[in-house]
């Protein structure tokens, strides 16, 4: 019925299609086409499978690594931060010029705003003579120093040290009698000594004058005569004897006009105010991280050199008498027992502090008498004035206190010691007896720790303190006079009223 409605053209087209299908069926074209199509599919599948299973050739080029911050990756920050050794060395030598290997005159090293005035050097020489005369009147025999007979010098200083100790005991019979609330900071007892972060600070060991010397991370050395003032304020004199951070300052007790300084750039200089020169006495290819000297030997310097090394330098021969490797990392402080001067304490960034007996260090590798272990770097280890206790300060946020016959009694006091990269590390120091330890805190104050109560008993604060004090020194002859250096180059002097 439907075919009757088709046109002539449509009927002819359908007839051609029918005839072509019969022809293809007779030739079996459809079956052959199906077989060819199936074979082509199998070939493509086999080829794809072979490509997947083939071994990859090793890449010889360095892959491209796209750096992304922890914030953009949604990862919380690392709570540990930089490693201890990185925190210690960061920004140490940002402004380090070339070494000057030789004497450097005080005139050339002078960095003050006004013209160089040699009257300051003359004043130090006069102070040294006055101090020597005062000590001789008090029965303290002063030896000839580094230029004289060693045996007489040693004997003289032993007598002098004993007299000083006895006199201090007479003046200060009851330990702990210092009233902490009497320590105050006035506006006139602060000054900026150096341009940048203070790394070392020390009082002149003089009973006649209060003078402070401080060194900073760029090698500057500032002097502050706290008892003298000019029209513009406190008398400050600035010099630049070193090319890098100053790691230690030693004002010679037997001659106040001679001052040793050590530097991260491996230099030790002797400032001789009488000769008006910063003389070069030692040069090392390694960094010098600490400097010390026993009270009974003005001829030898002890300094921490390189990664864990201790060097003893003899001024009489101008050579190193001994060199040992005592720690696995840098030695941050060196201290001597005030009662047994052959006992030495060292602190190190390897997380330990040790005591040593210098009478038994002839071997290439001396053995420690005792090792005190912390979780992180130990930045100081100091004997108490009596020598009966040892205090350590560590980046693991503890102050370690050790006492007993062999320092076997150990206790720890929590103290936040994370100063970061812009501040010098905290170092807790003893006061004028075994009653208190003074250490800076991050709230612009000075924490006072009692070894007896094993806690912070008070914090010294003042509206005149505008920066965080990090490095301290207690005046050896004036009880209650404490100096603290900051990252801005300022020094604050607390005094007992």
UniProtKB/TrEMBL annotation:
Task: Provide the residue intervals of the WD repeats.
Answer: 324-366, 371-403
Which ranges does the record mark as transmembrane?
A: none
Give the matching Gene3D superfamilies. Answer: YVTN repeat-like/Quinoprotein amine dehydrogenase
Supply the Pfam families for this chain: WD40
Identify its protein family. Answer: Belongs to the WD repeat DDB2/WDR76 family.
> GO MF annotations for this entry?
DNA binding
Protein name, please? Answer: WD repeat-containing protein 76
Where does this protein come from, organism-wise? Answer: Acacia crassicarpa (northern wattle)
Among the GO biological process terms of this entry, one is:
regulation of DNA damage checkpoint
């Amino acid at each position: 019925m439907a075919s009757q409605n088709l046109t002539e053209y449509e009927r002819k087209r359908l007839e051609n299609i029918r005839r072509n299908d019969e022809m293809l069926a007779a030739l079996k074209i459809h079956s052959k086409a199906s077989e060819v199509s199936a074979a082509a599919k199998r070939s493509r599948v086999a080829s794809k499978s072979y490509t997947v299973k083939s071994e990859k050739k090793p890449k010889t080029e360095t892959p491209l690594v796209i750096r992304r911050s922890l914030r953009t990756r949604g990862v919380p920050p690392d709570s540990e931060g930089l490693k201890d050794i990185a925190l210690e060395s960061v920004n140490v030598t940002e402004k380090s010029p070339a070494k000057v290997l030789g004497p450097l005159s005080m005139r050339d090293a002078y960095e003050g705003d006004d013209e160089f005035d040699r009257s300051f050097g003359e004043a130090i020489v006069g102070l040294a003579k006055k101090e020597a005369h005062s000590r001789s009147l008090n029965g303290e025999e002063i030896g000839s120093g580094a230029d004289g007979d060693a045996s007489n010098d040693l004997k003289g200083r032993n007598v002098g040290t004993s007299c000083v100790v006895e006199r201090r005991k007479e003046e200060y019979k009851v330990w702990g009698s210092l009233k902490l609330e009497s320590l105050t900071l006035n506006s006139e007892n602060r000054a900026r000594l150096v341009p940048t972060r203070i790394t070392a600070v020390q009082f002149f060991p003089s009973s006649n004058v209060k003078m402070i010397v401080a060194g900073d991370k760029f090698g500057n050395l500032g002097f502050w005569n706290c008892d003298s003032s000019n029209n513009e304020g406190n008398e400050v004199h600035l010099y630049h004897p070193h090319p890098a951070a100053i790691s230690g300052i030693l004002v010679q007790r037997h001659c106040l006009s001679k001052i040793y300084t050590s530097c991260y750039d491996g230099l030790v200089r002797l400032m001789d105010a009488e000769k008006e020169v910063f003389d070069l006495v030692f040069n090392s290819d390694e960094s010098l991280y600490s400097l010390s000297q026993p009270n009974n030997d003005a001829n030898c310097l002890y300094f921490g050199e390189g990664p864990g090394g201790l060097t003893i330098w003899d001024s009489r021969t101008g050579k190193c008498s001994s060199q040992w490797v005592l720690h696995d990392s840098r030695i941050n402080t060196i201290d001597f027992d005030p009662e047994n001067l052959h006992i030495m304490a060292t602190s190190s960034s390897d997380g330990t502090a040790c005591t040593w007996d210098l009478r038994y260090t002839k071997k290439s590798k001396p053995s420690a008498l005792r090792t005190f272990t912390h979780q992180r770097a130990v930045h100081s280890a100091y004997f108490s004035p009596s020598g009966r206790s040892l205090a350590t300060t560590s980046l693991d946020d503890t102050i370690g206190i050790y006492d007993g016959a062999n320092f076997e009694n150990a206790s720890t006091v929590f103290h936040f010691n994370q100063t970061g990269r812009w501040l010098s590390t905290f170092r807790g120091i003893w006061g004028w007896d075994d009653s208190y330890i003074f250490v800076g805190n991050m709230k612009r104050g000075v924490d006072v720790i009692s070894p007896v109560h094993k806690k912070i008993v008070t914090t010294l604060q003042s509206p005149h303190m505008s920066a965080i004090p990090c490095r301290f020194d207690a005046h050896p002859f004036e009880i209650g006079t404490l100096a603290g250096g900051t990252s801005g180059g300022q020094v604050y002097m607390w005094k007992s009223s």
